[in-house]
Amino acid sequence: ETSLKATGVDFLKSQNTQEHHTDGYNIKNLVVRRGQPFQVLVSLNRELRAGDKLSLRFGIGENPMKNRGSLLSLKPERENFNGWKISFVKKNGKECLLSVTSSPNAPVGKYNLYVKTGTNTYKPENGVIYLLFNPWCEDDVVYMASEAQKKEYVLNDTGYIYVGSAYSIYDRPWNFGQFEEFVLDACMYLLDKSKLSLADRRDPTNVSRAMSALVNANDDSGVLLGNWSGNYISGTSPMDWIGSVIILQQYYKTKKPVRYGQCWVFAGVLNTVMRCLGVPCRCVSTFDAAHDTEENLTVDIYLNEKGEKLNSLSLDSVWNFHVWNDAWMKRTDLPDGFSGWQAIDSTPQEQSQGRFQCGPCPVKAVREGDVYLPYDSKFVYAEVNADRVYWLVKKVNGKDKYFKVGTETQAIGKNISTKAVGENRREDITREYKYPEGSREERMSMQRAYSFIRPSALMPRSGYASTVQTLGETVQPLVLKEPGTKTGIQLKITNTEPLHPGNPLELAITVMISAPGNWTVDLIGSCQLQYYTGKVQANLGTIKETISLEGTSEMQIPLKIAPDAYMKTLSSVEDEVLIIVTAIAEVKETNDKLTKETSMRFQYPPITIQMPETAQLYNDFNCAFIFKNKLNVTLENCKLLVEGLGIFKMTTFDLGDIMPGRIMKSEVICTPTRLGEKKMVAKLISDQIKGISAEKGITIT
Asked: Residues in the active site (predicted)?
C-alpha cells in the first residue's frame, strides 16, 4: 500500500491576493490578512481515502513548537485551539482544495507551511506565507468600517506630508510605496528585530510602539539616523528624499541605519511600515508644535533687547511644524472610549521607558485631557497644548534680568493636518485633538490635564537651570490665562510683496489699538531666518520705533530686508529655512506689553510636468519636466529628483546652474508595470532652494 504523500501545493496567489487586498505586493510569496479564509490546492500521489491522515502545519519563528503556540497543526474539519480552522472545499481525484482561516488575532509575521501526511512531511517551494493585520475583518482590532478610508489609509501608496508654517502651509508629495520590492521584507525584518513575543505580535498597540522605536536608529540601529545639524556630507540631506522606498530598500540590504532623517522623513517611513503591515495609518502635521522638555506645559522663549530670539537660553522649543502618525486600532488595554486613532511618533525626541519611542497615545485622551493613559500622552498633550511665554532679557547692573512680555495661550498646536480621504487636499483634524479654544469643554479638558501634570516650578527655565534660584526676585508665577490688556492692543505681521529669494523681503508690522484716548507705543521688530525646529540661523535686521495712535486706529510700520542680508545664509545652509518676524509692543501709558511672532516661507517658481493622462500597461510614454527660473538669482548645483511608483524608478538628474530667465527641460521614458491611478513626483533642489515639488497623476489601463 503506497503511503500518502503530497507532491505539490498551489497557493492560488492571484485569487487569494485579490480577495485579501494584497495583490499590490511585489513579492513571490503569498501575502494574506488574518481572520479571513484563503485557499490552497494540494496535489497528492494518490486519491485520498477514509482513514488517511492529512494536516497543514504553520510554523512561525526560528524554532516553532506546539506548546509555545508557534507551531499550528491543522486537521480539516476540526477547529484548532488557537482560533484557526481548515476545511475541504472539494476533493477531485489526486487533488484537494482546502480553505484555511487564520485567527483574527493571530500573530502577524512569516509562517512556513508544510503538508503532513502520516509520517511524511512535504515542504513546498516558496512555502513562506506572510500574514498581516486585517482592517476588512470585523473581529480584527484594526477593523475599519469605511471602504474609502481603507483605500486611503491602507492601500494608497502615495500621499502628502504638510510642512511650512501655520501662516503658509504647503504639501510635500511623498511616495509611501508599501507594495514595492523588499519593503514588506524590511518590515518583517523589523518585526523580528523588535524581539516582540508572539503574544505581543497579535496586538497593533505593541507592534506600533515597537515600530516607532525601530524607524529611528537611536537605541537599536533602526532604519533612519536623525540629523538636525545642517551638515549632511556623509549621507543624504533630509530634504532630498521624496519617499520611503529607497530608504527601506537600502536598510534591508545593508541592515545599517540610513542617513539622514528629520521629522517628515521619520513619519513618511513609519506610515509606510504601518500600512505595509496592514494597520491603517496617516501622517499628521501640527503647526507650532511644542517640544516641552519639562512637561510643565509652558515653552519659554527668550528675546534680547532688539527683539531677537536667543537660541542659547531655551531648553524647550517650538517647532514650526512637527509630523507624526496616527494609527487606527481598538485599545483592548484601556477603558472604553479610547479606541480609534492613536498617535505614534518615531522622531527621536525624548526617551519613553528607556527607548526613543512614542505612543500609541489615544487621540481622544489628548482631547479629553486624560493624560495618564499609556503611552506618552503627557508628551503628546504638551506638543499641542502648551502656552508660549516670552521673556525679555535685559542687562541690569551687568546681570541678566528676565521680564515677562507676554503669554500666548492659543499659539501652540494649530492647523493639525492630514491628507483628506480620496482627495488631494489637506484636511484639518485639529478638532480631533482639541476642543475649540476658549470653549467650556476645552477648559474642563485643560483642568483635567493639569491635575495629572504637576507643573514643576512655574518660572523661566534657561540653559543655566542650576542658577535659576538667583533669578528668583524678578519672577512672577505664571497665570494660566493672561488678563486682557487695557488698550486692546493687537499686532499683525504680513509680507507686502511676494517673498522671492533674491528680492528684498518687504514685511510690515501693523499695530492696532481699540481703546479711545491718545497712546504712545514703543515697537521693536526683528527678522531672522530659522530652521523648522525653531533654531535661529541668522539675524537679518531689526527696527525700533515709537509711534502715536489716537483712539481706535492702526499704523503699519515697514520692515525691509535687502537681498544681501540673507542670500549668503540661504545658499550656505543645507536645510529649508523660514523667515520669522517677532514684534514686541509696549504701551507707555499703561505698561501693556504684547509679543507676536509669525513665520513665513519663501515662494518659488513651479515645476511643470507634461505627460499623457492615460497610458497602457507596458507601453512606453514620454514625461517632461519643465522649470523656468523666474527669480533674480542663479540657482546653483541644481538636481532634479524623479520617482513614479509602478512607472519609473527613483532617478536623479544633475542640471548644473540655472541662470535667471533660463528654462530647463528634462525628459524620461516611462514603462508602466502596474494598473490603476499612478503618480509622477518631481523635486528640484539647489544651493539656494531646498525643495520645489510637483506631481501629476496618470491612469494606467
From this structure: 263, 322, 345
Q: Which CATH superfamily is domain 6-132 in?
A: Immunoglobulins (2.60.40.10)
345 is catalytic: yes
263 labelled catalytic: yes
pLDDT, one tens digit per residue, over 242-281 is 999 999 999 999 999 999 999 999 999 999 999 999 999 9
Tell me what the pLDDT averaged over the chain comes to: 91
Element counts in the chain: helices (H) and strands (E)? 11, 38
Whether residue 153 contacts residue 280, with contact meaning beta carbons closer than 8 Å, is answered with yes
Domain locations in the chain as residue ranges: 6-132, 148-452, 489-600, 607-700
| Catalytic annotation, pick one of 20, 21, 291, 322 | 322
pLDDT at site 76: 87
Q: Is 564 annotated as a binding residue?
A: no
CATH class of this structure's domain 148-452: alpha beta
| CATH-assigned architecture of domain 489-600 | Sandwich (2.60)
Consult the annotation and say whether 385 binds a ligand: yes
Q: What is the pLDDT of residues 305-321, one digit of tens each?
A: 999 998 877 677 889 99
pTM of the model: 0.92
Tell me which of 263, 276, 527, 623 is the catalytic residue. Answer: 263
Cα–Cα dist 110/595, whole Å: 57
Told to judge if 192 belongs to the known catalytic residues of this protein, a careful annotator would answer no
Structural fold of domain 607-700? Immunoglobulin-like (2.60.40)
Q: Is 387 annotated as a binding residue?
A: yes
Does the annotation place 442 within a ligand binding site? yes
> In DSSP terms, which residues pair with 300 in a beta bridge?
389
Q: What distance in Å separates the CA atoms of residue 297 and residue 299, rounded to the nearest whole number?
A: 7
Tell me if 6-132 shares its fold with 148-452.
Answer: no
* Catalytically annotated residue among 157, 203, 345, 575: 345
